[in-house]
Specification:
By secondary structure, this protein is mainly alpha-helical. It is 66% helix and 0% strand. The protein has 2 domains: 3-145, Hypothetical protein af1432, CATH 1.10.3210.10; 175-263, no CATH class. The structure holds fe (ii) ion.
Amino acid sequence: MKQKQVENCKKWFDKYVCDFYGDDEFVNANIRLKDNHSKRVCEEMDYLTNQLQLSENQKRIAQVIAMLHDIGRFKQFIKYRTYNDPKSVNHCLLGLEVLRNTKILDGIDGQERQIIEKAIELHGKKELPAGLDGEMLLYAKLIRDADKIDIYYVVIDYYKKYQQNPNDFKLEIELPDTPEYSKNVVENILQEKRIDYRNLQTWNDMKLCQLSWVYDINFTDTLKRIRRRNYIEQIVEFLPDTVEIRKVKQKILTYLDRKIEKAV
Ligand SMILES: [Fe+2]
């Protein structure tokens, strides 16, 4: 893939997204969220691919995936006014549909194009399917990590703004903002288990679930970034100060330190 193709793809993204902004401030705030997220994921991808010393061509493919991974989000929000996939549509598959209809990947080599499409398709799955081959697996892992680093940034920013001004909150909240959290969610984290989204009852459960994402991270460089930016500590600040939550914090931080230390 040529650098020019990456640049064209980024230019196309801006043009495409531009049309989704309009008079509705609720819609605009949500569109902006994914617009900015996609651009920051490109930066995170740049960090990861540099750390992993990938080839220039691999970096270019990874950049296209990062830029386009959430391309289905815009149509999804306009049509359903939610980013909740189960309540609307699978945004990864919708993204593929957008890419095919707009023919934006048409100039890209067949095999590279397949990799880009597959990585986008799989980026939102709870787990990656077994049997992915080397190169395909690499990009599928990369986008999942780059995406998660930025989602940490997004949710922390979200919690801060909500705390400052809950009444003026233009983004959607899907779970009740009550003081409780579920014991089974805490238990799962302490056992290093992933959490099923269907078990989430409150907004606090969602925050706990976000902490558990560290168990699903593929590259140590991603863990390093999460640790260095204090994302775990920051999310915990928005949870009730209880013995259980302190245990969860300790558990996750110890897990991160252990993984990072092992890789040195
Ligand atoms: Fe996504």
